[in-house]
Design goal:
With about 180 residues, the chain is of the alpha+beta class. It has five helices and four strands; from the N terminus they run H-H-H-E-H-E-E-H-E. The chain is elongated.
């Protein structure tokens, strides 16, 4: 069976009115910020804007929810981290915020978020992504979390990734797209 993955582009909010400069900025940032000490100034230079205008427009686009998320996509493999695992935890609801804060303070925890349980098959309600140079490194870090955050009685599973997917940010406009 030939299955094609369809990429859906999030629609712009109906209330958003974007001028040509906003549209050019959105098109440029979706491929990533320049890797420099002055990424916003560099963007501005290529768009004919100054750094303050770029930052102001980005703040407005985020505030107006045209841009829903703006953050870093770290490509761990290129940084020497060859193993990663999602660790799922079954944490009592009354202490999940406290334990989530404890888990999230560790540098090797790159994501920490709550999700609803799907009982009876899936009792887990807190998810943490852990990266390491190899599987033993990840497992050592999981043990450090268990000991440091008092999780010895908390059920959890370590789910190692078996495939690597392309990591990128949102695509709002196709490059070269005209209205």
């Amino acid at each position: 069976m030939d299955m094609k993955v369809r990429h859906r582009h999030p629609p712009l909010p109906k209330q958003a009115i974007l001028d040509d400069r906003d549209q050019a900025l959105i098109t440029l940032i979706q491929t990533g910020l320049p890797l420099s000490k002055t990424p916003y100034a560099d963007l501005g230079k290529s768009l004919g804007m100054n750094e303050d205008e770029v930052m102001s427009r980005l703040k407005c686009l985020i505030s107006d929810k045209v841009i829903k998320r703006f953050g870093v996509v770290v490509r761990h493999h290129e940084l020497g981290y060859r193993a990663n695992a999602m660790v799922v935890w079954d944490i009592p609801d009354d202490i999940i915020s406290e334990l989530g804060s404890c888990l999230g303070q560790f540098d090797f925890v790159t994501l920490c978020y709550r999700r609803p349980r799907r009982l009876p098959e899936w009792p887990y309600n807190l998810f943490t992504m852990i990266h390491g140079q190899d599987r033993d490194d990840v497992l050592d870090n999981v043990q450090l979390l268990v000991e440091s955050c008092g999780l010895t009685e908390i059920g959890h599973k370590v789910l190692f990734s078996t495939r690597r997917f392309k990591q990128r940010g949102a695509i709002y406009r196709k490059t070269g797209m005209t209205d």
